[in-house]
Design a protein that fits this description.
By secondary structure, the chain is an alpha+beta fold. The protein has one domain: Arc Repressor Mutant, subunit A, CATH 1.10.10. The strands form 2 sheets. It has a 3-stranded antiparallel β-sheet with strand order 1-3-2. The longest helix has 14 residues. One zinc ion (ZN) binds next to helix 5. One zinc ion binds next to helix 5.
Length: 142
């Protein structure tokens, strides 16, 4: 993705703040989903509440989505572009590496359309794949 942080904030009608810009920069550089504690570590000093609110706002506005990976730690990744404050369209699978614990978006793997049994309403469907990631298989230490 070639987007600039300023552009992303504009596209989602979000005011520019130092923390928002910094968080977006970190997401743009990452090729994996990030947890709040990982983000915290990237700052010399950041208010945890501010960071938490930033992530929540980004999620609500369609900037980032929750990359569910079957673990208890929520991780987030940038949305592909067509998400907004009304709806997310991140129907791709996520991959969780059992070796290094990283979580990746598999953008090209789109979840099939599920048919709920009569009387049920499906709001979300998540596809999680687990195994060993490319980095670990190639022996590159994370
Ligand atoms: Zn999204
Ligand atoms: Zn790995
Ligand atoms: Zn994703």
């Amino acid at each position: 993705m070639q987007l600039r942080p300023e552009q992303i904030l504009n596209d989602h009608q979000l005011r520019r703040t130092a923390v928002r810009l910094a968080v977006l920069r970190i997401f743009l550089e990452a090729d994996e989903a990030l947890s709040q504690s990982y983000l915290e570590q990237q700052f010399e000093q950041v208010d945890r509440i501010t960071l938490y609110r930033t992530l929540r706002t980004f999620e609500q506005k369609g900037v980032i989505h929750r990359a569910l990976d079957g673990t208890d730690t929520p991780k987030y990744a940038l949305c592909a572009g067509e998400c907004n404050e009304h709806a997310h369209h991140d129907h791709h699978a996520h991959f969780h590496c059992d070796d290094c614990g990283r979580t990746y978006c598999l953008e090209e793997m789109v979840a099939p359309r599920f048919h709920a049994p009569r009387g049920f309403r499906v709001d979300e469907a998540h596809m999680v794949l687990t195994g060993v990631c490319k980095e670990c298989l190639e022996g590159v230490s994370p």
